[in-house]
Amino acid sequence: MRAVVQRVSEASVRTNGPELGRIGTGFLVLLGVANHDTELDARFLADRIIGLRVFADSAGKMNLDLQKANGALLVVSQFTLLADTSSGRRPSFTQAAEPEKARELYQQFISICREAGVKVEQGEFSASMQVSLINEGPVTIIIDSRSKM
To answer: What does the alpha-carbon distance between residue 148 and residue 137 come to, in Å, rounded to a whole number?
Structure first.
């Protein structure tokens, strides 16, 4: 699994009409599921993201994690994070999981985060969405579960 994690002061996601989710302080998580991923990958990413110490403490240093900053998550599925651009101009998405598997692991990731006590909003799986955010810092971090070794 691969995640692009952006520290935000606010973020929202909508389809061509209704707003699906909105958060204030927290992380916008763009989440891509690879065809070899399992629940262990979802648990690894959830733990890493929830534990990221990138929110300012009283001294202004990036020292607080999501929960200590009273933050929330906005999780949006994004299979394009698994794009292979090594040849040609058109990306290949063969590394991305099939939709059924990706949906299951996307939902497991969200459940794991909620079980940890984090407020989670989400986009609509496999829908065309519009994401709005104010990236605070800016702070943007890429986490890949393959790096856990």
So the answer is: 26
Q: Is 80 a catalytic residue?
A: yes
Query: Does residue 55 carry a catalytic annotation?
Result: no
- Please give the CATH topology (third level) of the domain spanning 2-148: D-tyrosyl-trna(Tyr) Deacylase; Chain: A; (3.50.80)
Catalytic pick from 27, 44, 55, 79? 79
Please tell me the predicted confidence (pLDDT) of residue 21: 97
Instruction: Tell me how crowded residue 48 is: count the other CB atoms within 10 A of its CB.
Output: 17
pLDDT, tens only, 54-69? 999 999 999 999 999 9
The verdict on whether 6 is a catalytic residue reads no
pLDDT tens by residue, 68-86: 999 999 999 999 999 999 9
Q: Which is the catalytic residue, given 15, 38, 80, 140? A: 80
Task: Give domain limits for the chain.
Answer: 2-148
Residue from 27, 44, 78, 109 carrying the catalytic annotation: 78
